[in-house]
Specification:
With about 90 residues, this protein is an alpha+beta fold. Helix content is about 20%, strand content about 25%. It has 2 helices and 4 strands.
Amino acid sequence: MIRQIAPQFFTTEMAATLAYYKDKLGFNCVGTWEDPPVYAIVARDEHRIHFRLADPPKADRDKYADELLDAYPSERVEAPSSRRCRPVRRD
């Protein structure tokens, strides 16, 4: 039986994340590593959450282009181009 887990979440702003978990959610900071922190653990009610500092994600418009082609192996399908996509207008 699982009684406890300790998930690790990635964050791009460690100070803001720790402040939110402390001030809004009532967690206590158990420890941080390095200065400024690149890793931290918060705890509340016998549960812990680990945070790791990460670089902001980079946009990759072609990330799934090959998967689209794999979905239709018997047909000749062209991967979508961001130049052909138009934003949806919501009036």
